[in-house]
UniProtKB/TrEMBL annotation:
It comes from the Bacteria. Belongs to the ApbE family. It comes from Pseudohalioglobus sediminis. Its cofactor is Mg(2+). This is FAD:protein FMN transferase.
């Protein structure tokens, strides 16, 4: 068996699959993985015009509910759990607020415009009934992409395991999952980028049979009122949340890691550290002064 690699494009990002198999078997596994990734992207991505999320957005304020199957409801339940655990700061309806800022993070909307947009924000406004899901006000937007990507990786891992795959690593943007170790017993390694003075360095971590997620990106931070902030926007006032610039977590699944990293990034810095320590998972957080914290931080 040789190590085989395949690079795919999905969810607007590059996805790399690495596994140990013959060339023929690897192509079959790659096709299976691509089919599952494409299925989930088509079904849930807000960028796909026929996805469930897009249909919910298009029907906002119309009075029509979008039907949800069991898989869809499980994702909405997960998002609701994050919303509750984060004291309502994790809010997939804040997608609308991103339009208030340019690519560099500079505010381009007036305070009055932000105030108006905030009337269209609020996960608690989403109606989930036996009929399905409904956003009650025209102009509201829902975006679950940050949860859907790790969910898709976990789904691919389950499919590959059922097919007998014992050694694999799947990486998509800031998320990853692995199956076992490499065939020769070596560890699967991920590179965590972190600040080192005025430069950026890479810290290698082991990821064997686990999931990984990073939320936030210290390299994509914004300068707001003379201070560093991440890209997370508050559903309360529409301004950047003064939490960690980025949080990386290793857990049993990529979705579990996503949940932990998402919640921690929205807490104040010391509260995030305390909360992550109580979880007992491997983690690294980068604060607004570019200091690294946690057991995965470079030593």
């Amino acid at each position: 068996m040789n190590m085989q690699r395949k690079r795919l494009h999905c969810f607007g990002s590059s996805c790399q699959l690495t596994l140990h198999a013959s060339a023929t078997e690897a192509e079959k596994r790659f096709a299976l993985a691509l089919n599952e990734l494409s299925r989930i992207e088509t079904k849930f991505s807000s960028y796909h015009p026929e996805s469930i999320i897009s249909k919910i957005n298009q029907a906002a304020g119309s009075g029509f509910f979008t039907p949800l199957d069991a898989e869809s409801r499980s994702l909405f339940d997960f998002a609701s759990a994050l919303w509750a655990e984060s004291n309502h700061l994790f809010d997939p309806t804040t997608r609308l607020l991103q339009d208030c800022y340019d690519d560099g993070g500079t505010l381009k909307a007036t305070l009055q415009q932000i105030k108006g947009m905030l009337t269209l924000v609020g996960w608690n406004k989403l109606q989930l009934t036996d009929e399905g899901a409904y956003l009650p006000e025209r102009g509201m937007l829902l975006d679950l992409n940050s949860c859907i990507r790790p969910y898709a990786l976990d789904a691919v891992r389950r499919r590959l395991v059922r097919e007998g795959v014992e050694h694999a690593l799947i990486e998509l943007d800031h998320d990853a999952v692995s199956i076992g170790k490499q065939a020769d017993g070596a560890n699967w390694l991920l590179g965590l980028r972190h600040p080192l003075g005025s430069r950026t360095a890479v810290n290698r971590i082991k990821l064997n049979n686990r999931g990984y997620a990073m939320r936030g990106d210290f390299e994509n931070r914004i300068l707001f009122d003379g201070e560093n902030f991440g890209r997370g926007l508050s559903p309360v006032d529409g301004f950047p949340i003064p939490g960690m610039l980025s949080v990386s977590v290793v857990a049993d699944t990529a979705l579990d890691a996503c949940g932990a990293a998402s919640i921690a990034r929205l807490k104040t810095e010391q509260a995030a550290i305390n909360w992550l320590q109580k979880l007992g998972l491997p983690w690294m957080a980068i604060d607004r002064k570019l200091n690294c914290h946690g057991p995965l931080a470079p030593r």
